[in-house]
Amino acid sequence: MSSSAPLSDPQNNPVFPALCLHPLNDSFIPKHISLNPSGQRVKIGRQTNAKTSPGERNGYFDSTIMSRQHAEVWEENGKIFIQDVRSSNGTFVNGERLSPEGLDEDIVEFGIDLVGEDKLSIIYHKVAARVSCIFNEQQARAEQQQIQGPL
C-alpha cells in the first residue's frame, strides 16, 4: 500500500512528536497528526463542517459512530496521552475502554461497530487504527518507509 501523509513540513523537516494512524478497516485514510510539544491537545472527532473536514494531518473522521468531540491527544514529557471527552460510544486502547488517559504504541478505537438486526452484518464501522508515536527523525524515517512499503 502506498500512501499518503507526508512526515515533513513545507521545508521538508520531519514533524514530531506525532501520531501515525494506520486504518485496520476501511474507515479512513492513513493519518500523520503532529503534536505540539508544549502539551497543547489535538482534538479527535467527527466531521461537522468544512473546518473539520477529514484530512491526512488532522484528527477528524467521516464517521457516524464518532462524537463531534470524541477524544483529545497530547504529548507531555516524552509520552503521548489520549483522553476520551465524554464520547457516546467510547474510546478504546487494545480493546479496553479508556479511563481518563494512557497511550503509547497500541491499537486505538473510536466508537464501536454497530451491528444490524441480523446480529451479523456491520452497519457502521468503528474507527480503528494501529498507532505509532514519533519522537525523532529516525522514527519518522522508519515510519515513512513503512507507509510507502518496500521499493
TrEMBL record:
One of its GO terms (cellular component) is cytoplasm. It comes from the Eukaryota. Residues 42-98 form the FHA domain. Gene3D superfamilies: 2.60.200.20. PANTHER family: CENTROSOMAL PROTEIN OF 170 KDA (PTHR15715), LD47843P (PTHR15715:SF37). This is FHA domain-containing protein. It comes from Mycena sanguinolenta. The lineage of its organism: Eukaryota, Fungi, Dikarya, Basidiomycota, Agaricomycotina.
